[in-house]
Amino acid sequence: MDLRTYLFQNRITQLEFANEVECSKITISHIVAGKRPSKRIAKRIEKVTKGAVTYPEILKKESMNCVD
Asked: How is residue 67 annotated by DSSP?
């Protein structure tokens, strides 16, 4: 599942999720827009979503732009 879908289905705002992941809202916004996060952030997202959004799914994004 992608992050946009996860946030929508769970009715979580990007700001709320950013606080859980311990990163900025802009980082989450970039990821939702299709930019690839750092491995550190990708691992945190997988942990916070309890595996609903997995580390490999996040990193396989087409975009090679990395946000941290």
From this structure: E
Q: Which residues contact 16 (CB under 8 A, 6 or more apart)?
A: none
The number of folded domains in the chain is 1
User: pTM, whole model, 2 decimals?
Assistant: 0.83
Q: What are residue 32's phi and psi, to 5 degrees?
A: -60, -35
Question: Which two three-digit tokens encode residue 33?
Answer: 């827009």
What secondary structure letter does DSSP report for 15? H
Q: 12: which 2 tokens?
A: 């979580």
Q: Say whether pLDDT at 26 is over 70.
A: yes
pLDDT greater than 50 at residue 11: yes
Q: What residue numbers bound the domain in which 8 lies?
A: 3-67
Instruction: Choose between 41 and 60: higher pLDDT.
Output: 41
pLDDT of 24 reads 97
